[in-house]
Specification:
Elements (H helix, E strand, L loop, with lengths): L6 H4 L12 H8 L4 E3 L3 E3 L7 E5 L5 E5 L3 E7 L3 E6 L2 E8 L2 H8 L3 E5 L13 E9 L4
Parallel strand pairs: 3-8
Antiparallel strand pairs: 1-2, 2-8, 3-4, 5-6, 6-7, 7-9
Helix pairs in contact: 2-3
Length: 138
């Protein structure tokens, strides 16, 4: 009998928080398939994520490799700072704890700037802006 490599993608996964973990931690570790958490954060589930995709509202895309990520910092006032080798990224918005958890766990596939002023509220992350600055000359 051969082993089906896609079997784990077909098995249901409980998304209920495990004992001793917060809801945001269980969201980061809980799903198999990629999923959106609101309009601004896409998680990878159990898939390996080699790079973080940053999507700007004007259509520009950037992908930065997680292997070059050296630090992730959360400022409760509304920003997440990322240090990559050669780049610094600043993400500004509201309720960014899920974003921080996903980035620190390297399961965020994509961060998207909000396409408008609409904020869903609740505990859904809202990303107002993403700024990328090269820290070394090419």
């Amino acid at each position: 009998m051969s082993v089906d490599p896609f079997d784990r993608l077909r098995r249901p996964v409980s998304t209920a928080p495990q004992e001793g973990t917060s809801e945001s931690e269980s969201r980061v570790r809980g799903s198999v398939a990629p999923e959106f958490i609101g309009p601004c954060l896409r998680l990878a589930g159990d898939a390996a994520v080699p790079a973080l995709i940053l999507r700007m509202r004007d259509g520009r895309l950037s992908a930065l490799s997680y292997s070059y990520l050296t630090a992730v910092r959360l400022d409760p006032a509304g920003s997440v700072e990322l240090d990559f080798v050669g780049h610094a990224v600043s993400v500004s918005g509201k309720r960014l704890r899920h974003v921080f958890d996903a980035l620190a766990g390297q399961v965020a596939m994509e961060l998207l700037e909000s396409s408008g002023e609409f904020d869903e509220g609740g505990d859904v992350p809202f990303i107002e802006s993403i700024a990328i600055v090269a820290t070394q000359e090419r």
